[in-house]
């Protein structure tokens, strides 16, 4: 039977792709019906019988017998004389079922059938991959480095699925070699054309949250809740944790003896500095904890503007701001409040940002980096220390000092 070779080739796809019998039959029927529509204009009067296990396929065309010369639609009607060549006892008005051989469709159609089948099976396969990974969004996933490009690392999982780790989704200190196993979260899955694009991220805060779930049993069991995670990938992170059981110290449980529990997470994130703090609904206390390791003297909160004015001793200011302003920025993200830091006794001081008309913003930022954000804090700082601790020229620093002095001389 000439159908056999074609069906055998279909079975190859079934074995390769592990498609279940029902799905394979549905795909086969769809492919053949498309071919019949192209050749005959309609497939409504065709029966397709497929048995993939036996490698058997039958196509039957059903037509009504009409008088000679009255055939209007050759696909749906057959003349009495043509019908009696199939069976001599047919009468007008009866149904005739005639088998259509694949060879009747033509060699081109058979080649097109195969290509169409390949396309349909790939489409089915890609849809399943898309659905599978869509369900894994936000979950930790591990894959192996297959290829390293300038803007992304291409990973393959155990099933050969391609996963992309873009440069901007990596931790700055990440360094990979071919064959390395890489962990991250499935951040997004999209269908581009018929192909799923799977994006992995190691920079997303959810990755850190999921690492807590994976590495700390109390978080996994639900005894400790991770309320919020904010991070500057590879630099610093703050994690607010809470427990509904008063007997459990959530911070202690997450950090472990001498940092034993959190050490593996820190190492995974390229030695990212992780502050774990106790969550509380007491806003003043929450902001105080968020600014750790700085010790806060007092806080004034404006809930309407979502701003908090924090008073600290001069020696605590640089701790509150942190290197590169990381600590205060993450504290603001964690609490949802814009935090303004003031020194004790500096009520009459002026924020450096107020001088933006006279001093360029990048210069102000240089002072912010070393914890100086007000006019008096700069004026009280040793000039030589300002030169050594900032990337500013002596002339630039002197010019800033002159501008600030004028403010208070007035």
UniProtKB/TrEMBL annotation:
Domain NusA-like second KH: 284-345
Subcellular location: Cytoplasm
Classification via Pfam families: KH_NusA_1st, KH_NusA_2nd, NusA_N
Segments crossing the lipid bilayer: none
A molecular function GO annotation: DNA-binding transcription factor activity
Transcription factor NusA first KH domain ranges (all copies): 202-279
Gene Ontology CC entries for this record: cytosol
GO annotation terms (biological process): DNA-templated transcription termination; transcription antitermination
The entry's keywords: Cytoplasm, RNA-binding, Transcription, Transcription antitermination, Transcription regulation, Transcription termination
Domain of life: Bacteria
Domain Transcription factor NusA N-terminal: residue ranges: 6-125
Task performed by this protein: Participates in both transcription termination and antitermination.
Subunit: Monomer. Binds directly to the core enzyme of the DNA-dependent RNA polymerase and to nascent RNA.
PANTHER family for this protein: TRANSCRIPTION TERMINATION FACTOR NUSA, TRANSCRIPTION TERMINATION_ANTITERMINATION PROTEIN NUSA
Family membership: Belongs to the NusA family.
HAMAP family found in the cross-reference section: NusA_B (MF_00945_B)
Listed name of the protein: Transcription termination/antitermination protein NusA
Species the sequence originates in: Ulvibacter litoralis
Lineage: Bacteria, Pseudomonadati, Bacteroidota, Flavobacteriia, Flavobacteriales
Gene name of the record: nusA
């Amino acid at each position: 039977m000439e159908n056999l070779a074609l069906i055998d080739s279909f079975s190859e796809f079934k074995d390769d792709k592990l498609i279940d019998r029902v799905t394979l039959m549905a795909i086969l029927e769809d492919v053949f019906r498309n071919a019949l529509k192209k050749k005959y204009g309609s497939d409504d009067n065709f029966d397709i019988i497929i048995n993939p296990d036996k490698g058997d396929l039958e196509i039957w065309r059903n037509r009504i017998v009409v008088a000679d010369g009255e055939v209007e639609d050759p696909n749906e009607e057959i003349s009495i004389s043509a019908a009696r060549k199939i069976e001599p006892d047919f009468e007008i008005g009866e149904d005739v079922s005639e088998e259509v051989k694949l060879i009747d469709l033509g060699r081109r159609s058979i080649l097109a059938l195969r290509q169409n089948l390949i396309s349909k099976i790939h489409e089915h396969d890609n849809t399943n991959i898309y659905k599978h990974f869509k369900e894994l969004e936000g979950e930790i996933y591990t894959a192996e480095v297959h290829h390293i490009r300038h803007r992304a690392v291409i990973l393959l999982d155990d099933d050969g699925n391609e996963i992309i780790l873009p440069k901007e989704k990596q931790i700055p200190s990440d360094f990979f070699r071919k064959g390395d196993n890489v962990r991250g979260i499935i951040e997004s899955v999209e269908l581009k054309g018929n192909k799923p694009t799977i994006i992995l991220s190691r920079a997303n805060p959810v990755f850190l949250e999921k690492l807590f779930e994976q590495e700390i049993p109390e978080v996994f069991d639900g005894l400790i809740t991770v309320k919020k995670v904010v991070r500057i990938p590879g630099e610093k992170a703050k994690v607010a944790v809470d427990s509904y059981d008063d007997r459990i110290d959530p911070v202690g449980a997450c950090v472990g003896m001498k940092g034993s529990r959190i050490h593996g997470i820190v190492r995974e994130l390229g030695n990212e500095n992780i502050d774990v703090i106790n969550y509380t609904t007491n806003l003043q206390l929450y902001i105080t904890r968020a600014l750790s390791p700085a010790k806060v003297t007092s806080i004034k909160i404006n809930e309407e503007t979502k701003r908090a004015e924090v008073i600290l001793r001069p020696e605590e200011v640089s701790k509150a701001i942190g290197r590169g302003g990381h600590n205060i920025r993450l504290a603001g993200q964690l609490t949802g409040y814009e935090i303004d830091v003031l020194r004790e006794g500096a009520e009459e001081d002026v924020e450096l940002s107020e001088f933006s008309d006279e001093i360029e913003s990048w210069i102000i930022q240089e002072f912010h980096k070393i914890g100086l954000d007000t006019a008096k804090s700069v004026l009280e700082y040793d000039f030589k220390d300002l030169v050594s601790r900032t990337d500013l020229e002596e002339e630039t620093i002197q010019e800033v000092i002159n501008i600030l002095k004028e403010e208070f001389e007035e």
